[in-house]
Amino acid sequence: MASNAPAQCCTVGVKHEGTPTGKMEMVEDTETYIVRPSSPHPSVAILIIPDVIGHRFENAQLIADQFASNGYLTYMPDVFFGDPISLNRPAGFDFPSWAKNHGVERTEPLIKKFVKHLRETVGVKRLGAVGYCFGAKYVVRELAAKGVDVGYVAHPSFVDAEELKGIKGPLSIAAAETDQIFPADKRHESEAILKEVGQPYQMNLYSGVEHGFAVRGDMQKKQVKFGKEQAFYQAVQWFDAYLKE
Q1: Over the stretch 3-25, which tens digit does the pLDDT of each residue have?
Q2: Pick the catalytic residue: 16, 117, 155, 211?
Q3: Could you tell me if residue 157 is left (phi over 0), alpha (psi between -120 and 50 degrees) or otherwise beta?
Q4: Which of 50, 207, 232, 242 has the fewest CB atoms within 10 Å distance of its CB?
Q5: What is the DSSP string of 220-232?
Q6: The pLDDT of residue 170
Q7: How many angstroms separate the CA atoms of 210 and 174, rounded?
Q8: DSSP 111-153
Q9: Phi and psi dihedrals of 167, rounded to 5?
Q10: pLDDT tens digit sequence for 25-40
Q11: Is 184 a residue whose pLDDT tops 50?
């Protein structure tokens, strides 16, 4: 595997301050957080596939707002069918059982439905995808299937080496120094794969942060705040370079 399966660290974190500005709408029978920029880039959009906390997590919504502030029409659907995991889940939570209900066979058709909706109904010509933790796997898979044009992932989980070998578009990765799911050996394995694949890639490693920092990091800590903010800038700069025509 290019990254390991999710663990307890996938649900631990801090709620950030701010008031989301997007709207909840029903798209393809799925509740979706949508943010429409005031000055959008023509025919370009970003699909966010969130971590296991889901699309209603305000931290994720604030990130979607930030993408829209940078000119990107942004969609973030409920990929967990109303069954996300709460932040800082209680001890004893049966994660393996939960994960069985949210595997590829159930999640991927929904992702593909949104890719099709954005391209055919909304008229998006260039589509980027953002994946945090759980969502990273589907960004990689859609890059392989040419469903999306450009990808960005942070602290990825569940990504198989063969999936990464199949990508057909640019991919940027934000990694945490301390991450049992995407540790040093998995980072190095991913680097070797990406070099062999030949697509444009980027992997930034942030010190003093742990798995989940790009969404759930403690903003009261200087290094974490820096890492979280820089990981977002990394994504925007990547899309500005490779998604906009």
Answers
A1: 556 554 444 444 467 999 999 99
A2: 211
A3: beta
A4: 207
A5: TSHHHHHHHHHHH
A6: 98
A7: 11
A8: HHHHHHIIIIIS--SEEEEEEEGGGHHHHHHHHHTTSSSEEEE
A9: -65, 145
A10: 999 999 999 999 999 9
A11: yes
The answer to whether residues 60 and 75 touch, using CB atoms and an 8 Å cutoff, is no
Q: Which two tokens stand for residue 91?
A: 């001890």
Report the alpha-carbon distance of residue 44 to residue 69 in Å, rounded.
14
Identify the pLDDT of residue 10: 47
Q: What's residue 117's pLDDT?
A: 98
Is 211 assigned a catalytic role? Answer: yes
151 strand-pairing partners:
129, 171
Rg over CA atoms, the chain: 16
Mean pLDDT, the chain, integer: 93
Residue 149 structure tokens: 């044009």
Scan for tokens 């450009």, then name that residue: 150
Residue 173 token pair: 């990765």
Q: How far apart are the first and last CA of the chain?
A: 33
Please identify which of the residues 9, 51, 133, 149 carries the catalytic annotation.
133
pLDDT band of 72, cuts 50, 70, 90:
very high
Kindly list the distances between the CA atom of residue 171 and the CA atoms of 15, 75, 126, 137, in Å, as whole numbers in the listed order.
28, 19, 15, 12
Rounded Cα gap, residues 103 and 83, in angstroms = 13
- Distance CA(44)–CA(126), nearest Å, equals 5
Mean pLDDT of 126-141: 98
Find how far residue 20's CA is from the centre of its chain: 18
What's the one-letter identity of residue 237?
Answer: Q
